[in-house]
Amino acid sequence: MAKTREVQKFTKGTYLVREKPILRGVDATPDGGYALRILKAYRHDNEGYVTDNSNGDPPESEFLKMLNETNDQRKVELDKAIKILEASPKGGVSGTTNARRG
Question: How far apart are CA 71 and CA 16, in angstroms?
Answer without folding.
Answer: 13
